[in-house]
Amino acid sequence: MNRPSGRFLRFFVASVILAGALAYGWTHNAPDFVTPIRTIFPESQRIEVRQGVHHVWGSGGTLIGWAGVGTADGYGGPMLLVVGIDTLGLVAGVQVVEQRETPVFWRMVRSPDYIREITGAQYNAIDYDYESVVAVTGATLSADAIVESLRVSVAEVAGVAFDVRLPLPPRPLEFGILELSILALFSIGIIGHRLRGPIRRRLRWAGQIVGLLVLGFWENSPITMAKLAGILSGFLPDPRTALAIYLLIAGFLLTSIFFGRNLYCLYACPFGAAQRLIGAIGGFKLKVPLWAVRFMEGTRNLVVFVALFLAFLTLQPALASYEPFAALFALHGSTVQWFLLFIVLTVSLLIQTPWCNFFCPMRTIELVVLDAKRWVKGKKGGDR
Amino acid sequence: MQIFNSGLFWFIEGILFVFVVLGMGAWARDRGLRVPVWKWGLFMIWLLLAGFTIAFVGTSFGEGESVAGTRGGLLFGAITIIAGVGLWRVLLAGAEPGGGDVVSEA
Predict the structure, then answer these.
(1) Does the distance separating the beta carbons of B77 and A349 come in below 8 Å?
(2) Does residue A252 share a domain with residue A104?
(3) Is the CB of B65 inside 8 Å of chain A's CB atoms?
(4) B interface mutation test: which of A275, A285, A349, A350 has the most B CBs within 10 A?
(5) What is the ipTM of this complex?
(6) Is residue A169 part of a domain?
(7) A13 is in which domain, residue-wise?
(8) pLDDT tens digit string along A216-227?
(9) Which of A16, A27, A38, A110 keeps 20 to 30 A from A261, CA to CA?
């Protein structure tokens, strides 16, 4: 009979607790639309939903405006935004009801100037050129989510209140250098995994340097806990605009299952590449005592559990993001993340890839996948 | 902090800088290292980087920009340390085995 390992049992119990947290999160985090609508229309007396649009009445039962709710994919999940439009067709105000962005990036895009600029504009003449702000802040996904959800909410109101159909811009499949690079990196990984000796080492270096440049410094698109927690929370981003994260996660899972080691970490991860490069500069390879390795691995698993628990409980996937990736690749991060980055980069001179070995949540996820695979395999063998 | 704007401070700074460069030369001689011009160039660049890091942190805190000082210090500090280790290895490359570190000889 196949007995699951102690670690697998711990993972199982943790999964049950996390599922409970997620269930709680979904049942206790219903968005509140009334408060933001009352903020936009302070004179409102009654709010009623008709044909999916909030109709707002003032004193004496006079219709004073409408409020449309729009949603779009942000960094950590959907963003919900309410736009109020008065009976003259002018934007009365915009309120963000829900957002799941990482706090650092959210602080940058939450520029009130843009909201102020469009307040008072005619509903069919709104300037959606928020991209200029994006270019300055670099928070592409968060800013795009604001623009997209604004478009959706205005179109909703226009259709119901003014009987005008405002066309939404088409969203073609985004397949560019990033997506091509990801496919190339996994291909290199699969080839490299089958080879031995110096060719394998060279392929790994080649893959990691491409990963560092494209997935790191150029696109800042490594797999992060926020993205993973978002998907696990049920916030599936639109594959047309977020194909890269699907490719990365699929590559991570499939190579873990079929090759017994995920090739994302070995060949594509930009942060792993940065540490390996620094390790090559340092040339030291200090051995960490086994007890310290076990302690750090246990701590890492606990941190991953707590991060996911909080993300699920609050339905805020960005809460799970503790990695210092953005600090290195986009020069944005909290002070804690900057300290973490400093420690990891300098310790990389002495110890091989310390983040990957002791802090990276992907290692914990990989262990879960491998344990589950072993358990399923053993169960099949036992059944035969 | 008037001292930082005074001529005396920069006079001392210049003396210390010269000592660092002379010290580097002495260290290389003691170790029997050959230091060609390009290695001196790398050393000077690193010295400027280290000086810039300290200046960045100092001026940022001095101007009340503690967040910028902390984050910039951590980033440039890491770059300086990593570059320093890289420079160390470059300087030691090609060192004669057993050369240097002789404290006394009969």
Answers:
(1) no
(2) no
(3) no
(4) A349
(5) 0.83
(6) no
(7) 6-24+174-383
(8) 999 999 999 999
(9) A16
